[in-house]
Write a structure and sequence with these properties.
The protein has about 280 residues and is α+β, with helices and mostly antiparallel strands. The chain is built from eight helices and ten strands.
């Protein structure tokens, strides 16, 4: 027991006037692990239980929970270090060295962390939004301190650094209004009844359950092309925003079947060939 007591109180190193023993270091480690787990539980409690009773959406609840977690982590870390008897004033030199490291070697991490705080406060994107940044297209499922997780339609998780959402143009399909307009181009042969084509396209839109009736679908005659008269069907949807390809595919299938039933021709590309000399 004397040997265990001496080992438990064995001094490892000193910070200023404070002497860190094995017991102090072990207590610090266990305390920080407990603090980390408690903040995770606190974030889930606030975001998914307490704020779920309010009118805040999922993204706002997650943002409030994350900010509260970071605050508790900071205050709890300071309290743990002070309660262990560590003199924080002795860490000034260490803090200066860390600041230099952040300025040079860890600038990307600091940039992403600050960008994450900006995202949580300003909320240009939030959990549940459909976004496009660069060549990444998917739904935001988590916003962390360093990176944001985006799930694509292939169910692939892409970890995007937060700084990209601040420094690059971001397309947010669902930030203010869940309604999104889709444009489906279609070409018909010259000589077709154009008013009939318009009526058939509107029927296709009206028969699809995921096309929103308000604003109403519209048909636009875009131009007289080289091989076809080009139309564009424009519809609004709120249910298939995260599966845009499915809605466009469904409408294309329905348009083709509707044209087949009414004898509307979708032309092939046509070219006129002239033979100047024939042997």
């Amino acid at each position: 027991m004397d040997w265990l007591r001496k080992a438990w109180n064995y001094p490892l190193f000193r910070i200023g006037a404070s002497e860190l023993t094995v017991s102090v270091v072990a207590t610090l480690i266990l305390s920080f692990v407990a603090l980390y787990l408690i903040t995770l539980w606190l974030k889930r409690l606030v975001a998914r239980r307490l704020l779920a009773r309010t009118s805040l959406d999922l993204g706002a609840r997650e943002a409030v929970g994350s900010l509260l977690r970071y605050l508790v982590l900071f205050l709890g870390g300071v309290a743990i270090v002070q309660s262990a008897g560590v003199d924080l004033t002795a860490l000034n030199v260490l803090a200066g060295a860390i600041g230099v490291g952040v300025g040079f070697g860890l600038q990307n991490i600091a940039n992403n962390f600050i960008s994450g705080l900006i995202i949580l406060v300003e909320r240009p994107i939030k959990v549940g939004d459909r976004v496009e940044v660069g060549n990444i297209d998917g739904r935001v499922v988590a916003i962390g301190a360093r990176a944001t997780t985006v799930i694509t339609n292939d169910n692939i998780a892409v970890i995007v650094p937060n700084s990209r959402f601040i420094a690059e143009p971001v397309v947010n399909w669902t930030q203010n209004d869940p309604r999104v307009r889709f444009k489906i181009p279609i070409g018909v042969a010259y000589g077709s009844d154009l008013r009939q084509v318009e009526r058939l396209l509107l029927e296709v839109a009206a028969e699809h359950p995921d096309v929103h009736p308000e604003p109403a679908p519209v048909v636009r005659l875009m131009k007289f092309g080289d091989n076809a008269i080009e139309f564009e069907l424009r519809v609004w949807s709120t249910t298939l925003v995260h599966k845009r390809g499915k809605l466009i595919s469904d409408l294309n299938f329905a348009i083709y079947e509707k044209f087949q039933q009414h004898g509307v021709e979708i032309p092939f590309p046509q070219r006129e060939v002239r033979l100047r000399h024939v042997d």
